[in-house]
Specification:
Rossmann fold; single chain; 11 helices; alpha/beta; 346 residues; binds iron/sulfur cluster
Length: 346
């Protein structure tokens, strides 16, 4: 990815050649490694301050693993996660260990997909939201309660709810509690991992609008992991499309949706619902075949067995991610040649 562009914009985060390979063990007492699942396989992208970057793709493409590597829930196999901490040199989070990670974990927080499983059912809301403040010795007692009350108000819940337990709340309210907890330590970067996919359609828009309001209020930067492309279009400034642990395309949201340059992106766009029922898609491009096995990916371009535009070169040569237009990156040998259809032209 173009270094010049990255350094000019002083990115909040830059991911370089990130790999996360999980070992596969042979059955038996010796636990020999028989191979690796290449969940993330050498990806490069950057996140600018104040933007929302979407990470999209089918299940198993590596988007959630990427978020977890940035959070250092996983220790990446290789690569760098450069975090711009203040005005100095960026810090490579992959090299920070143990308690030294604590300050960065305060600045980079996560919102989890499952609003039911992510909240401890034995803790009340005061303790769930206030725990990071207490654990980091920032505040306790009455001041902590005031902070929790303020956060509850910010996410649209009543402060008197703080003494209730998670089971007393709906899915949407629980996700608001999860968002409040993520904001407790005034983070800079929030990784939202499918934050609305477990919610009823009726409350999704409310939670998305809340995320947008909070972004403006707190000047937050989001990495938004999702598979629902309608949601991504609504909330993201730029989108990174992943396929089997690699990046297929990175572009501004509207450019990606109206004018995709990668055949995989085009196929994903065909699955985006058209809001006007009077409009019909003329020719739908169906994404056929299974997602490639990340422990044994195909040769050349990983997408070639499913790609309707594949040629001989695609079978033998892996396409590198390259800048084809300003701020636009694609990993396809024929990106400039293909005339692909976006959401509106489908
Ligand atoms: Fe399809 Fe070939 Fe492009 Fe891969 S490189 S997306 S197989 S045209």
């Amino acid at each position: 990815m173009n270094e010049e562009i990255n350094t000019q914009n002083r990115n909040l985060l830059q991911v370089k050649n990130l790999k996360m390979h999980f070992p596969i063990y042979k059955p038996g007492i010796r636990h020999r490694i028989s191979g690796y699942i290449r969940a993330v396989d050498g990806i490069n992208f950057f996140v600018r301050p104040g933007e929302t970057l979407g990470l999209v793709g089918e299940s198993g493409c590596g988007k959630t693993t990427t978020g977890r590597c940035i959070m250092r829930i996983y220790q990446p196999t290789a690569g760098e996660v450069l975090y711009q901490n203040g005005g100095g040199q960026p810090v490579d989070l992959t090299q920070v260990q143990g308690r030294d990670l604590d300050p960065y974990r305060r600045q980079i927080r996560m919102i989890f997909q499952d609003p039911y499983g992510s909240l401890n059912p034995r803790m009340n809301v005061r303790d769930i939201i206030g725990e990071p403040l207490f654990n980091n010795k920032i505040t306790n007692g009455k001041e902590l309660e005031d902070r929790v009350a303020d956060l509850l108000r910010r996410v649209g819940l009543r402060p008197e709810y703080m003494h209730r337990y998670p089971h007393a709340f709906s899915g949407g309210e629980r996700q608001r509690i999860g968002i409040a907890r993520a904001l407790t330590l005034s983070p800079k970067l929030v990784i939202a991992d499918e934050p609305v996919s477990a919610l009823d359609v009726s409350v999704r828009a409310q939670v998305l609008n809340l995320l947008l309001d909070l972004q403006e209020e707190y000047n937050l930067t989001y990495i938004f992991v999702a598979h629902d492309l309608s949601v991504v279009r609504y909330i993201c400034d730029r989108v990174t499309v992943m396929y089997v642990g690699k990046i297929a395309e990175v572009a501004g949201t509207e450019a990606l949706y109206t004018h995709p340059l990668h055949p995989y992106t085009e196929a994903l766009m065909m699955a985006v619902p058209i809001p006007d029922p009077r409009l019909r898609r003329t020719k739908r491009i169906l994404l056929e075949g299974e997602v490639a096995d990340p422990s044994n990916p195909p040769s050349g371009c990983y997408f070639h067995p499913r790609c309707r535009y594949a040629e001989e070169q695609c079978v033998v040569e892996h396409p590198e991610l390259r800048e084809v237009e300003p701020d636009r990156y694609v990993a396809c040998h024929f990106a400039e040649k293909l005339a692909l259809r976006g959401v509106e032209s489908s």
